[in-house]
């Protein structure tokens, strides 16, 4: 245990933010001054990951501190709704205030989740979620993904209005409620930017539409890496038909959405300072997963490339080292113990033997820097299950029934060279697979996930009956009345 001094904690989680689209992560074009300033004031983790590169399972893992397969959070139709403790449960049981404002994407807003003060929460629609995404075969496609790219441009949507309302309510909370708290409080803010729809207010779009943006890695069709699972994901999303003009306009819009998000975060941080709480409050910024946005000829999430499974993670506070960059391997399951640690409840997560560690512990204990990081994917656009293990410089991706991938991120941060076929790396490949299998049985979990998804579909009369007249949605609607 790190024995940090108890302080307030603000967790800011965006949605689908590629870490390469931040100034502090090396992007020379994008304007993200508020998040960049947060990184200057604290620790920026270069090698942070989600534990499942899709919204609902990622967030379910984050709030419970457990991997998706532990409780069956397979896809966007299988979500946490109580039944095991969340970090909210632990805080509430011990008399601490935890307030959430914005997107959580759990099953519902029930008190069983441990989050008793949820404001304008966005969860699964009617507790059901994306049942269409539980269908995982090569007959299914989602052409709407291409339309999302083709419709990118300036404007206002429910999502931009929702993020502004989250900002407004966060400011009100910090100015008028937080100062009177007797114990350290936890405030969770769930923004929806830069998740599609790819629409952003005109002033943000204009910043980038005529700029020379950083070209996504392997974005030209002749450079696309070929792999059965990736190729089928391109088919599923109709990515083969994304023109260079559409891709460029979508990327400019996405840049604008990242800057729009940064402005919202800036307003929140200004309110914290105005309330006189900056000295006694730590801030953690991250996202639920990334968006490859054209990297490797792929868009959106659902893959184990860095743009999708990697996430930004920044921890700042007056008692944390400043101007610090950490290459420690961390992931979203570390948030549960970090949040409890920040307010003074480290003993309560230590008893649970969670797979994650407090980031405060990671910062003071070099032996924790090279813990293995694990991620999994069993959702839409992937006819098989994917597993990722990051250990040391190596990243191993296991596809059940299909060829694996192996990258040395120290020598090849852009993941251009798959080492699986090189005999010199046979020992590394074997060692990484053995380590993965010490965590999970990939084949058994792949079967378990599909069985659970088929069982869900049976409640609708089976796949064929469910598909009659069904139109899959691209994103969850905002709460009524916002």
UniProtKB/TrEMBL annotation:
Domain Sulfatase N-terminal: 7-344
Superkingdom of source: Bacteria
A Pfam family hit: Sulfatase
Protein name from the UniProt record: Sulfatase-like hydrolase/transferase
Lineage: Bacteria, Pseudomonadati, Spirochaetota, Spirochaetia, Spirochaetales
Database matches in CDD domains: sulfatase_like
Organism expressing this protein natively: Sphaerochaeta associata
Gene3D superfamilies, per the entry: Alkaline Phosphatase, subunit A (3.40.720.10)
